[in-house]
Amino acid sequence: MHYEGNMIRPPSEANSILLQATVGCSHNKCTFCAAYKGERFKIKSDDIINQDIDFAEKYCKNQDRLFICDGDALIIPQKRLLNILKQIEKKLPWVKRVGVYANAKSLKMKSLDELKKLRKHGLKIAYMGLETGDDVTLKNIRKLATAEKMIDMGKKARKAGIKLSITVLLGIAGRERSLIHAKETGRVLSAIDPEYIGALSLMVVPGTSLYNDYEQGTFPILKPEEILNELGVMIANTDLSGGLFHANHASNYLPIKAKLPDDKDHTLKLIGEALKGNVDLKPEHLRAL
User: What domains, with CATH codes, occur in the chain?
Assistant: First the structure.
């Protein structure tokens, strides 16, 4: 396989074939993210992508999922992306699911019919970084999308039959907007009604503008109990029709795996017990990105 730069994939794609079709992220301006700093976004040549599919045809027959890297491969022009999926269908017929990262920009660039065509040829899940449903915070972290745009694009993906895994970021709004962030994120998640939600807890990374704000004392890092309270408010305001809400990432203080609405009350009680000090939290030195 031909890999370049800093390759990122979702935790749930750990055992997938990783086909790198793009390098970096076309946006690459989020204040909290250092994943692709210094990397210039590009779409790799069809020759290299096809060579990697040929490699997978020979050596990856035990892997039935494939993830197209990198930051937002959905932004690849429709004709080229469709051809990649068709090559995967032809040469890797055992692959049951293809996934990509997506954002509001790349989803907007594809019509509903185009998304349906991608779904028809194997694209079954998209990982979307919402981070927050609070418009003020979205602007502050330079996501370049409003909450309503996030809702519209999320609904569009779901209407096309593509499953959504949405990431939200606890602590990203700071202290003053913490509860607003929690409630508004719950509202947006409820409106989209995705199959999967993954909540991560903010860890500021050197080299980002958010880290500089933290160093200068203009952005506060929430305490564990504040993060837990935010998580509880977010879950209380999230109504799903059967989606999974996970907060079991290595960055989180309290592992949560809940199916909503079935597990909502139990999960809120668990968070409440943790806030009372009756449940052990992950020590700071064990947290990681």
Answer: 11-284 (3.20.20.70)
